[in-house]
Amino acid sequence: MTADTPTTADIDLIQRILPHRYPFLLVDRVRDIEPFKSAVGLKNVTVNEPHFQGHFPGVPIMPGVTIVEAMAQTAAVMVGVSADLADKNFLVYFMGIDSCKFRRKVGPGDVLELHVTATRGKPGAKVWKFDGRAEVDGELACECSFTAMMDLPTSPPGEAG
User: Fold this and answer.
1) CA geometry: angle at 148 spanning 137 and 2, to 5°?
2) Measured between alpha carbons, how far is 154 from 44 in angstroms, rounded to an integer?
3) What is the CATH number of the domain that holds 30?
């Protein structure tokens, strides 16, 4: 982290940090990054997303697990920006999801605001814990706590280390 650490991440920076790509890249922008502490991700929900074909035909509802994944991706971007991990083959793995509650349906046309706050973890730590809240127009859609392991490989995936 430096004085030049960005407080936002556009889709280009997000893709330099996260390995996820369509159809599993679930955050479009991250703003209000407070290094190693918190951030707000934005996910523009569109009818073109593949999960809406089967969840549910005629009544498209974003699966709750994808909302939680979007919060986790927001947290990973916050840590990645804070630790200057763009282009460094940064991987993150779920370790646990706790106290998850869904409060509102999310569907096409909604903009998810993904508020994440680190409750455990510090620069260089492998295990982090976060509190997350997903909102649409200020209304709570989902809340949970989750634990993730941050992994910075010494060589790119698929290459011998």
Assistant:
1) 80
2) 34
3) 3.10.129.10
Spatial separation of the C-alpha atoms in residues 102 and 20, rounded to whole Å = 24
d(C-alpha 52, C-alpha 141), whole Å: 18
pLDDT tens-digit map of 17-71: 999 999 999 999 999 999 999 999 999 999 999 999 999 999 999 999 999 999 9
CA distances from 95 to 17, 23, 46, 142 (A): 19, 22, 29, 19
Among this protein's residues, is 20 annotated catalytic?
Answer: no
By 3-state DSSP, what share of the chain in percent is helix, strand and coil, each rounded to 5?
20, 35, 45
Q: What's the structural domain count of the chain?
A: 1
Q: List beta partners, residue 142.
A: 102, 134
Q: Per-residue b/e over 107-133, b at no fewer than 16 CB within 10 Å? A: eeebebbbbbbbeebeeeeeebbbbbb
Confidence (pLDDT) at 156: 56
Report field, pTM of the whole predicted structure over 0.85:
yes
| Mean per-residue pLDDT over the chain, rounded | 93
Distance CA 2, CA 140 (A): 33
In a domain, 36, yes or no: yes
The residue among 4, 161, 146 whose CA lies nearest residue 86 is 4
